[in-house]
Amino acid sequence: MPMTRKQRLTGAGLAGLWLAVLLVWVFAPSVMAVPVLGWGLFLLILAPLVWGMHLLARRLARKGRRDA
Questions:
Q1: What pLDDT digit, counting tens, does each position of 16-56 carry?
Q2: DSSP letter at 37?
Q3: Residue 25, domain member (yes or no)
Q4: Cα separation of 54 and 49, whole Å?
């Protein structure tokens, strides 16, 4: 059975979250020696993820209202 659009978006969001966690886990220890660089890397990874989740939530809410 093919996946629905909501399932694909949720899967992409979860994959992005895991990728962000993996990148922070791998690169943070070496980069955190320089706090400004470490926080910059952390925000660089976190900001697009949070923005993507925000857009996904808006899209799903809009779709939910349309279906009801």
A1: 778 777 777 777 676 666 677 667 777 777 888 888 888 88
A2: H
A3: no
A4: 9
